Amino acid sequence: MSRVNVMLPYLGEEEVEAVAEVLRSGWVAQGPRVAEFERAFATAVQAGHAVAVSSCTTGLHLAMVVVGVGAGDEVVVPSFSFIATSNAVRYVGAVPVFADVDLATGNLTAETVEAALTARTRSVVVVDQGGVPVDLDAIRAVCDPRGIVVVEDAACGAGSTYRGRPVGAGAEIAAWSFHPRKILTTGEGGMITTSRGDWADRARTLREHAMSVSAVDRHASVLAPPESYDEVGFNFRMTDLQAAVGLVQLGRLPEVVARRRELAATYAKFLAEVPGLRTVADPAWGESNFQSFWVEVGEDYPLDREGLLERLAHADVSARRGIMSTHRQPPYADLAAPGSLPNTEHLTDSTLILPLFHQMDETQQGRVVDVLVDAGRSA
Ligand SMILES: *Cc1c(COP(=O)(O)O)cnc(C)c1O
């Protein structure tokens, strides 16, 4: 019996060949493949502009800069997220203000966001947590009239839908992750998408040291024009090696999402009959890619979350504790009053993430289901 992993990237010979082709071309840093990946990604998520970056974390950092968030500003974020969401706010000297999430979706709501707004709020970062689409329109209806920019952390959201369109399509600016834990991977990598051409242009310049002439343009001319650096920029570039992989992966996305939704439906069907377990589900306004398939272990279940994780480990099934509460980590511990984020803490403490990956077969999924069903019987 072999281990069932919580996640496996889905990579094949096409990706190998795409990387080999880039290597043979001799142009390995940001170049034509990155530009091609940006165009394809913008089309896929129905965004006006796409700017490739080195990760979602650097993408969020850059989003904060182009949106104009700076020292002393407040940015409303979910504590219930990977810590990078809050770290991006800190990088620009702003203060994260934690809002609680909805128990059903694990996402911010218009109500929890509104309760966290102050005169100093400059921006709100919403997350499509685990792939579950956030109700962006409802949150923008609260923020837009106040001049507060909503940034979408769509790290987990590629291939999810919101009100019939791809997640991110309705965002002024969104950041995406291509880490192997997400469903489209380039090893490391990320993307910013935005409806605003001026923000895209600024992000494009800032990701490359704020250089007035891009490396690609310099390469195109024998006698390169002199460049200038009008502000302090970054090196947040993606490489053509990564973009080549991303192009192949993007082509697989519909197939990968369809398979994940099929596996999620199987989990939902078998676990619905187990008292005390609740599985993540699509919200009324969209469809999840089920990047993370989580289960809440309730009072009626014979084991608590830790007990169930142990039972799964005994069966060589690698599950994971649910999404973290950022406010419990040392850099953020002074930013939330005790008891102020009850849903966040409840979900962090009572959920676990089950294995789900493209290549998962019926036998593997059956092994996971059996552990949960059997443990549910043995009070
Ligand atoms: C994974 C993740 C990130 C960080 O993505 P990287 O590409 O690894 O920097 C940020 N936000 C959320 C919600 C994530 O899940």
TrEMBL record:
Pfam families to which the protein is assigned, alphabetical: DegT_DnrJ_EryC1 (PF01041)
The family this protein is said to belong to: Belongs to the DegT/DnrJ/EryC1 family.
Cofactor: pyridoxal 5'-phosphate
N6-(pyridoxal phosphate)lysine modification, residue list: 182
Active site: 182
Gene3D superfamilies: Aspartate Aminotransferase, domain 1 (3.90.1150.10), Type I PLP-dependent aspartate aminotransferase-like (Major domain) (3.40.640.10)
Domain of life of the organism encoding this protein: Bacteria
Keyword field: Pyridoxal phosphate
GO biological process: one example: polysaccharide biosynthetic process
Regions annotated as coiled coil: none
Protein name in UniProt: dTDP-4-amino-4,6-dideoxygalactose transaminase
InterPro entries: DegT/StrS_aminotransferase, PyrdxlP-dep_Trfase, PyrdxlP-dep_Trfase_major, PyrdxlP-dep_Trfase_small
Organism this protein belongs to: Microlunatus sagamiharensis
GO molecular function: pyridoxal phosphate binding; transaminase activity
